[in-house]
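Can you make up a polypeptide sequence alongside its tokenized fold?
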Amino acid sequence: MNAVPLSYILFVSIALFFIGMYGLFTRRNMITMLMSVELMLNSVNINFVAFNKYLYPNKLDGVFFTVFIITIAAAEAAVAIAIIINLYRTHQSIDVEDATDLKF
């Protein structure tokens, strides 16, 4: 069985990261921006697992980092969605431009 070369995995990871970065910088919808950040974190996870497999095939350090990042991403998504829901209730929009006009 032939393994997938590391360069192919890194290409997919880089593509996912830059798609996420493009989505983060060009979209105004907060949920789309949150999804873009999650896409960037997942591309980092792919890098951790790929480098772990090719550099240290008998260790699980990269997998442990990936599990840690997934845990942090889940907590970040829960907090971000709560903030987005609160902003939607106050402004009736999830557009970033509307969220910057906060009135206390």
In short: The mean pLDDT is 89. The domain at 6-99 is CATH 1.10.287.3510 (Helix Hairpins). The helical segments are 6-26, 30-55, 61-91, 96-99.
